[in-house]
Design goal:
CATH class of the largest domain: Alpha Beta
Strand order of the largest sheet: 1-4-5-6-2-3
CATH architecture of the largest domain: 3-Layer(aba) Sandwich
Structural class: alpha/beta
Distance between the termini: 22 Å
Strand content: 15-25%
Helix content: 40-55%
Shape: elongated
Number of strands: 20
Radius of gyration: 36 Å
CATH superfamily of the largest domain: P-loop containing nucleotide triphosphate hydrolases
Amino acid sequence: MQHNCAIYLTGKIDENHHELGVIDVQLMEIKDSVQQIAEAVAAILKMEVEVADERMVRVAGTGMAQKGVLSSIVGQYIYQSVLQTGEAAIVKNPGNHSACKPCSFYGNCLEMGEICCPIIVDDKSVGVIGLLAFNEEQRRRLFQDEDAVISFLQKMADLIASKLREYRIYKEQQITVKKLTTVMDYLDKGVISVDNYDRVTHINSKAKQDLGIVGITDQNELNRKIQLVLGVLRNKGNDLTNKKICLDICGEEKEFIISRTPIVVNQAIVETLITLDSLDQMVQIVQNEGGNEKEKVLKHILGSSKDVVRCKEMAVKIAGTDSTVLILGESGTGKELFARAIHQASKRRNGQFISINCGAIPEHLLESELFGYDEGAFTGARKGGKIGKFEMADGGTIFLDEIGDMPLHLQVKLLRVLQEKEVERIGSDKTAKQIDVRIIAATHRDLDELVSKGVFREDLYYRLNVIPLRIPPLRERREDILVIAQHYLQEYRNLLQKNILGFSQETETILTQYDWPGNVRELANAIEFAVTMESGSRVQPYHLPEKLLKMNTSMPTGYRADKEWDELNLKSLEKRVIALALKRVSYPPYRKEQAAGMLGISRASLFRKIKEYNIEEKDFFS
């Protein structure tokens, strides 16, 4: 509605307010409560009520004012004065006061009277509540006893302020709970809290992982599995402090060190905190801190599944030898990571680790990259020649990734390096140079099949396949997925400076159910994408790459990628908002100027966007 400047001002509003926290809360966040108060006041006083926030957006309204709820108020002169002074205002001649001259409704205002009061929190005006008269009867009631009306309106303003305080306290409590939950989730031990009826009130991510219940969304199934653990605890009696127990986790016996601590409030136990420490992991930590250098270099390889532990154990043993290694595994499983770890754990750690992708370098360049060349070896050869990768790796390790893509004629030269431990540069007339290099090769291809097809030399295959090490894909070790995801979440949130605490339960389910054909590399990319898109405290499903959502048929319809991304299209949203603004100002006497003001753009920009989006004006204006 149109508003005007005050004729005179009343006394200061009561400033006896409680101290609030630092959390910023806006009136718009409690708009439902404000609307209920507005409707109650209107019903009692038989006149219209309007509430606006400090941005001059109508939060609540009744009667004619209700039509513009959630939109900007045009001609905000009286409200701005009330916000600035913190004092109530009475207007008896709307539309005719000298201060109303800037308003486009000057001399033609629909209002016949107005009284408004500021809504004050912490000595700051956060909004305005106004009583509006649109006919003679409402005007008579409004000004019949002005002091009583102002006193009542001030109480309503205080009531709204108290609602805002309550909501702020609630929000602070929610944030505190979130912080505690986050702290619990980042603990390196499992934590379960239960009430006096053994009902689980919280379980952190580590406990879910240890108990093998990651990804379970059915609450009954989740409670059933946890109750099995609690049953074991009850049988152990009340004295549970650093006791060893054995639990059946997914058909496997696992040992834990367990403690139970009561939470006491007002001398009464309200909940019990149970902590679980995996005995295997505790032993592993002790070993890592105990100076085992070979195992230390492997601890940054994430995962604790059986297959990954087996691979790490093999890598430790391999590092103690100079044998040639062939690492097998799908793309993205971390073959180079294992190769580097083997090098760092070996006696060659002070030498060079040289990595080369045999499938990424053109065939005519690969030979010179591997073996180097002498000056004048071919047209364009560098003056003085070039050292090859094998010579660079002398005394260290060379990692030949995607060895299955190496051309046949280079396989012959590689075979000679393996047999004779010497290399010869292209175009060299000198004796081949002796080198001391350990070779670690890797491939995602089936070398047996390549041998049978004649595209990979059988003798080279047997020379490389001295110690095979197969790295399992993620789909074969799903228990490692969330551990790896949490690692990359922390890495990318620090890199992108995002305050993201973790994953929602739905997101965890999607991550663990997806097959990850690109393995760890694809998972890392997905987490980077999600952290980039996420603006809240936890990664939600619709912030994951669309491919993951389409592959997950168990997701609720509301999280489907096609629906969510359609709604997030900026042009589509802008068109809908413009159409909504035009609809709200379509009744007389409002026109496009008001729509432009509501949208915060110029009249010319509005006309241009109406034309750009082909919005049918006939749907809004006669």
